[in-house]
Amino acid sequence: MEDRKLNEKESLELITRMIRETQENVARYAAYPLLAWGYTTVIVAIVIWYAFLQTGSYKVNYLWFALPAIAGPITLYFARKNGKRGVKNYIDRITGQIWLVFGVVGWALSLVAFDGKVDILFIIPLLMGMATTLSGCVSKYKPMVIAGSVSIALSFSILFIHGADRLLAFAAIFVVMMIIPGHILNKQMKQLCSKN
After folding, report:
1. Keywords in UniProt for this one (predicted)?
2. Span 22-37, mean pLDDT?
C-alpha cells in the first residue's frame, strides 16, 4: 500500500467510516446475549416444570446448572466475535459490569436456594429485571428500560403463584425481559447495518 498524506476531507471521511464500521460491528452482535440467556432460561424452566410434573422430585432443579453451561459459551462466542470487530466503549464496559455484578449475585443466591432459604423464582427475575432496566438506562435504549421495568413488576406476581406453575410465570417473565427486547434490538441493528 502506498503511503501518502490525506487531506482534511479524506481524513475526516476515513475517521467517519471507521467509526461507522465499528458501531455497525458492535451493534450486529448486541442482541445475542439477551437472546441466548432469554431462550435458554425459558427452555430450561419449561423442561424443569415438565420434569417436576412427571417425577414430583425436587432433584430436577439440578437442571438449572444447564443454563450457564449452554448460554455461557454462546455468549462467549458472540463476545469474541464482537470483540474482534471494534473497541469497547464506556457504555459497553458499564453494561458489562452491571451484568457481572447482578450475575454473580444471582449465581450466589441460586446456590443458597438449594437449601430452600431463598425464593429464587422471585429473586432472579427481580435482579435480572433490575439489570435489564439499568442496562437500558445506561445505553438509552427504551425497549430494555420498559421490558426491565415490566419484569420487575411481574416478578412480584410469582409471590402469589404456588406449585410448579411458578416456573411457567418465571419463563414468561424472561420472555418479556430478554427475548422481546432482544428481537427488537436485533431487528433494529440489522436495519441499521443494511442502511450503511
Report:
1. Membrane, Transmembrane, Transmembrane helix
2. 70
